[in-house]
């Protein structure tokens, strides 16, 4: 009884929040009515057909992290056509565009450009033309939607009260491109940043997100466990690294089940094991590797420390030596993705106004995946949300991110473009007086 009462109260509270949010945006949006029809603009064939064409071109030519040279060139060509100035190169292949007055406040919109090392299995006219590479995380759609937003915003440039910074970043998939963009100093003076990710199981025209932690922090590790190889029939003359690796793998599973607070979500997965090449030979060494995830820095650091201790300790139990590499140079740790509370309110206002209350899930369940958008959020208030691109006709295989069968519904593209545009334009409208003294001319100097 009491739990169902709580459930009703909770939902009543959410409805009240939504109604309040909708009222707020309706009153604030009267300041500038031309920002209200961004979705109509994005659905207009002039923008829609142009976006579809761009998305298919990028999909046909997927490029991996820090190799997005042709994708970057396509972006710059379109920005040139739109007369949008940009900086290039930033972080190897990155492009940073600017729309608006060139003065503060500055708000950023981010899209990632990289594809994955996998073979596309979808048979369609615009499938990947590069063997072993595929846009299976929808970053082709992300680039397209940001260009769509740029096209719409450029048409309203005179009404924009500040500067919108378009961030086309490389290498989200493990390469930490976001960190490189920040290290290049490309986002100084930016006071808010928005990013989105497509979700293939959320219907078109729907979005979801939440305030606070939404995606986990993630790290990777690889351990080499060394023993002494020999004849499999004479084990007493060898030191068996396979048994040591087995002990380590089992013990690593106890970190989450026995050491972590059950209410603090964490993951340790061994996803890789390599060792031995014959049925009758004990190998010299075994390599194991995997990933670990957590929502707080404390839990994350604790896991990192214990993974190293457990592998080295278990190797020692079996008379082996072990080294653990956290792969910092190749796969930087990604912090948890944590949404700013004020920007959450702004997002809900904009999304409810554009899509309707029933299309906005503002209390999304957090997810153990990770995103390098979190690097921006460590230094700039940031907000990340999920956008529906469900393909209703997709029956044969479940459409998932990182699946070779991923098919997205391109009808979702106008929604992403319009939300990007509206989030940025209305943010500037709201913060037009929050100028930072002395930095107003910086963007012109940088260009
Ligand atoms: Zn991905
Ligand atoms: Zn992705």
TrEMBL record:
Its cofactor is Mn(2+). InterPro entries: Amidohydrolase, Bact_exopeptidase_dim_dom, ILR1-like_Hyd, Peptidase_M20, Peptidase_M20_dimer. Mn(2+) 1 binds at residue 173. GO terms for molecular function: IAA-Ala conjugate hydrolase activity; metal ion binding. The Mn(2+) ion enhances activity. Mn(2+) 2 binds at residues 137, 139, 197, 402. One of its GO terms (biological process) is auxin metabolic process. The chain crosses the membrane at residues 7-26, 88-109. Belongs to the peptidase M20 family. NCBIfam families: amidohydrolases. This is Auxin conjugate hydrolase. The gene is IAR34.
């Amino acid at each position: 009884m009491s739990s169902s009462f709580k459930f009703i109260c909770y939902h009543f509270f959410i409805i009240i929040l939504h109604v309040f949010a909708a009222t707020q945006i309706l009153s604030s949006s009267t300041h500038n009515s031309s920002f209200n029809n961004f979705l109509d603009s994005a659905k207009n064939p002039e923008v829609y057909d142009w976006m579809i064409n761009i998305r298919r071109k990028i999909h046909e030519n997927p490029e991996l992290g820090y190799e997005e040279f042709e994708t970057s060139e396509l972006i710059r060509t379109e920005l040139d056509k739109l007369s949008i100035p940009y900086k290039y190169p930033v972080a190897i292949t990155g492009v940073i565009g600017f729309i608006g007055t060139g003065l503060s406040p500055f708000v950023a919109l981010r899209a990632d450009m990289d594809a994955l090392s996998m073979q596309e299995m979808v048979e369609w006219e615009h499938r990947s033309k590069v063997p072993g590479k595929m846009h299976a995380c929808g970053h082709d759609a992300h680039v397209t939607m940001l260009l769509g937003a740029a096209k719409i915003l450029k048409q309203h440039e005179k009404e924009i009260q500040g500067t919108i910074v378009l961030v086309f970043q490389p290498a989200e998939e493990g390469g930490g491109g976001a960190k490189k963009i920040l290290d290049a100093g490309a986002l100084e003076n930016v006071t808010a940043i928005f990013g989105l990710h497509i979700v293939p199981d959320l219907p078109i025209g729907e979005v979801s997100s939440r305030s606070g932690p939404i995606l986990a922090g993630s790290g990777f590790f690889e351990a080499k466990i060394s023993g002494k190889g020999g004849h499999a029939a004479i084990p007493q003359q060898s030191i068996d690294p396979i048994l040591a690796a087995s002990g380590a793998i089992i013990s690593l599973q106890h970190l989450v089940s026995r050491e972590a607070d059950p209410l603090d979500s964490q993951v340790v997965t061994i996803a890789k094991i390599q060792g031995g090449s014959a049925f009758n030979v004990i190998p010299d060494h075994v390599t194991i590797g995997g990933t670990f995830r957590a929502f707080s820095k404390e839990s994350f650091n604790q896991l990192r420390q214990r993974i190293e201790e457990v592998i080295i300790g278990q190797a020692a139990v079996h008379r082996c030596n072990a080294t653990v590499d956290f792969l910092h140079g190749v796969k930087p740790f990604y912090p948890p993705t944590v949404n700013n509370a004020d920007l959450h309110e702004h997002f809900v206002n904009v999304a409810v106004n554009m899509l309707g209350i029933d299309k906005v899930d503002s209390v999304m369940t957090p997810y153990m995946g990770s995103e390098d958008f979190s690097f921006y959020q460590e230094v700039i208030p940031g907000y990340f949300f999920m956008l529906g691109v469900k393909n209703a006709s997709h029956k044969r295989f479940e459409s998932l991110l990182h699946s070779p069968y991923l098919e997205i519904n391109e009808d979702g593209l106008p929604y992403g473009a319009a939300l990007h545009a509206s989030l940025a334009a209305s943010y500037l409208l709201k913060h037009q007086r929050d100028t930072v003294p002395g930095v107003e001319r910086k963007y012109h100097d940088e260009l």
